[in-house]
Amino acid sequence: MTTTVRAIRLQEFGAPEVMQLTPVELPAPAAGEARVRHTAIGFNFIDVYQRSGTYPLPVGTGLGHEAAGVVEAVGAGVTDIAVGDRVAYMNAGLGAYAEARNVPADKLVKLPDNLSDEQAAAVIFKGMTAQYLVRHTHAVKPGDTVLVHAAAGAVGQILAGWAKALGARVIGTAGGAAKCERARAAGCDIAIDYSQGDWVRQVRDATGGQGVTVVYDAVGKDTFMGSLDCAQTFGLVVLYGGASGPAPAIEPEILNKKGCLFLTRPSVFPHNADPARFRANAKDLFDAIAAGHVKVEIGARFPLAEVARAHEAAERRETTGAILLLP
């Protein structure tokens, strides 16, 4: 049965006001799909880049990667998801900024009883990013020394706390005293203000000159070359974002000169493209939340109709913790 829902659509790109809440006809779920009635929608800063046109999208597109809700209909062939299930997703394509939507059922994960819909929407994208970084890109273990850039950010705080719980010594960088304090509260043994002085030297000094086992760098342009100088011999530099802009291009020989380093540029989506692996990774995240290794902090809630206000708050750095949109 077709139903009408409200969803954000972009007919142009620019300031937050370009996001329009529009009636959309939602057909019955096709074979292999489930209709999810959203109860909470997650926000990520990539949404700002896509809305503004920094990351180009087709005109008429929706926005949003993650949400939680309740299944209200399923299409033919769907056997592992049922009407009434509480579910979340983060890899079903754009369109989470909506009251409801149809998504491939194999992109959904059922939520445990101890995790609320709001918590799931707040953490599923950011937590799954941290999960592949500490479990797959580099399996963090006792004895490791880990450097987390932007350790006061949403993913950075999860990374710091999870790596600490796995037995690593964690060094974090952040901009300013308040953010350094937040990084320490998240699990960093040492927090370095990279707006003050030579942060590379401070990292090297904190490791007795050896450098760290692995660097997690989501900042990019402003930190990347320094990240190479912070890794120990045979260390790993993980570039997983570019908050300050794209990292500079380098000649491969520089990795040899700086200590036979390993360099990778991973992404959350390939790590969760296979449905079975996605659900196993999600269970790992949910178990880490239950154990207290990952904490879910919700900083602000906005009605979906006031999505422009949510984007403005994010761009002005007015909130800490996750931002939620509520249909």
What do you see in this structure?
- It is a single chain.
- The protein is α/β, with parallel strands linked by helices and 327 residues long.
- It has two domains: 3-124 and 273-326, Medium-chain alcohol dehydrogenases, catalytic domain (Quinone Oxidoreductase, Chain A, domain 1, Alpha-Beta Complex), CATH 3.90.180.10; 142-265, 3-Layer(aba) Sandwich (Rossmann fold), CATH 3.40.50.
- The chain has ten helices and 15 strands.
- The chain has helices at residues 45-52, 117-137, 154-165, 177-186, 199-206, 224-230, 253-257, 268-271, 275-290, 307-315, and strands at residues 3-9, 20-26, 33-42, 67-74, 86-89, 100-104, 109-110, 145-148, 169-174, 190-193, 212-217, 231-239, 262-264, 298-303, 322-326.
- Strands 3, 4, 5, 6, 7, 14 and 15 form a seven-stranded mixed sheet that branches. A six-stranded parallel sheet has the order 10-9-8-11-12-13, with helices on both faces.
- Helix 6 links the parallel strand 11 (212-217) and strand 12 (231-239).
- Helix 2 (117-137) crosses helix 3, helix 2 crosses helix 9 and helix 5 (199-206) packs parallel to helix 6.
- The model has no long low-confidence stretch (mean pLDDT 96).
